[in-house]
Amino acid sequence: MSDLGSLRIWEDPAIRGALSWYVDVAENRRPAKFRIAATVAARLDPAASSEDSLWAELDRLTPVFLACWQAIRAGAPLPPAAQGPSLLELVRELAYRMLAHCNFCPWDCRVDRVAGAKLGACKLASGSSVSSHFHHTGEELFYRGTQGSGTIFFTSCNMRCAFCQNGDISTDKDNGEETDPRTLAAMAWMLRREGCHNINWVGGEVVIHLHAIVDAIALLGRDFIPTREELKRARRTKADRFFGFDELPDAATYDGAFNAPMLWNSNFFITLESMKILRLLTDVWLPDFKFGPGRCAMTLAKTPWYWETVTRNIALIAKWGEDLSIRHLVMPNHVECCNPPGAGMDCRARAIGAGERDGPSSVPIISAIRPAPSTVTSMRKSPAGRRAWSSAIPGGGRANWGSTSKQPPSSAAIRSG
Fold first, then answer.
1. pTM score
2. pLDDT score at 301
3. Domains and CATH numbers, the chain
């Protein structure tokens, strides 16, 4: 047990309702989803099966997983782990099969990243590089808590935002250190045992590293304990390695085994196939919402299909009844095009309402108004950024980090809107 649950922010019923599963896992009152996935036995050998067979088995097992998850939410104990292949091994194999014809994101490049002879939009082969990992004390209060969010920063991205505040990470595929899944698992294991409230997968963009992340989570779900050498490799990118953190093994376990909520911190430019895998492993979702339905995503991020993809994915996790909060970016001079009634500031609620989220809880919306000075500098480096900034609202605005949405509109209101 940590002290995350004692923070006064949970007195807000909207936040508590939207993030109830997450805080229960963070406090080790419930097992993380990856622990549940390890209990759901598969009927086939993932490595020896065709990809079509793997997807069919995933479709068969997902309702079984969801029934078990709902029972555990209601207070049922965690079943014993499967002795043979489980849902964990199934999704790990599927992620690697997808890597061979990459369709992690809507660019749908279909390049064989295992072979690495040709690269797609993310400019990556099969390797995944980590820029840094650390106790992040700058995230939202319900994620950073008192001990920080256990953040693992990956390099590279599938978008090209002119205003990116992490441009050195997202645009330089050679930044950081190439890291294998066992070292990733060691990073997560270490951060959680040092008291971090969650494991925060972030970039750049994380979905382009889906295979490595799913592999690392599968290891954690099978009683992974890193070797001394793996911990040594993990510490190479630990930004706060010179700080003294006490090890708190009891704060990192449920029923005697490793436990931590998995936080998917993403631009949400993700395919449905990737979403189906992530549904079984992600305890709380943190999507960005940057642009409205016009051409702004193309102008400032060179990203087609942005609106359609992100609104669909937010609606999907809302329909699934997942825990989530949304980061909403308000760009200078983009209030009217990206945030008018019915398109921008309402778009999160419209997307959530389209998913027909059940229950009385609303979804926390964190509005970031005005980029930081470093972001302004990166914007001015590109022609699109210079055009946008030249007509920007003088002085921009101020950040409102504590805003939350009202109850989402009904699906009927969405259709009529």
1. 0.86
2. 95
3. 4-32+124-416 (3.20.20.70)
